[in-house]
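Entry 14. Ran structure prediction on the chain below.
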Amino acid sequence: MMTDPIADMLTRIRNSTMAHHDRLELPHSRLKERVADVMKAEGYLDDVRVSEAEEPKMLTLILRYGRDRQSAIDGLRRVSTPGRRVYVPHDRIQRVCSGMGISILSTSRGVMTDREARRQRVGGELLCEGVVIDMTTQATPEQKQWSSARGDVDPPVARGQAPGRVAEGRERHAEK
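Output, C-alpha cells:
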C-alpha cells in the first residue's frame, strides 16, 4: 500500500525525465490530476489525460522536452509529507528560485500555484516545489511571448543579460 501518492507521482516524473520517456502512466486520483493540471498550465508538462475506459482509471502525463531532449523539469521536491505537514499563510509563501520555480499548494479554493495563492490571498498545504528550465531560448516566438506576458520572466534576464543598472555599469566599464 502506498502511503504518499504525491511523492510517488513526483518520483515517477523525475525518473521518466531522466530516462527520456515521452509519456508516463500512473494510477489516477483527483489530487494527482489537479497537481498535473497545474504543472501543465505552468509549462512542466505537454498534456494530461485521464483514461475513462479502464476500470482502474489511469493518469497519462505527456512530458515536455526542448531541443536536444532537454527536460523542462529541473527539479521536483515534495515539501509536505504524511509525517510532517507544512501549512503556510498567503503572506509567508516563499518564492522558489527567485520566481523561476513554482510551489504547488492545496488550498480551500483548490490546488494552485504560489503566485495564484498570493493573488487570491489564501494559504494552504505546501505540496511540492519545482523548477522549470528556461525554455525561452529554445521556444517558438509564441511561447516566448507567452512567457514574457506571464510576468515571471524578465526578458533581459532570460537572455542571460543583467537587468537595469548592472548592465549599464558594465557598458560604461567596457568603454574605458
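The CA atoms of residues 42 and 102 lie 8 Å apart. Will compare against last week's run tomorrow.
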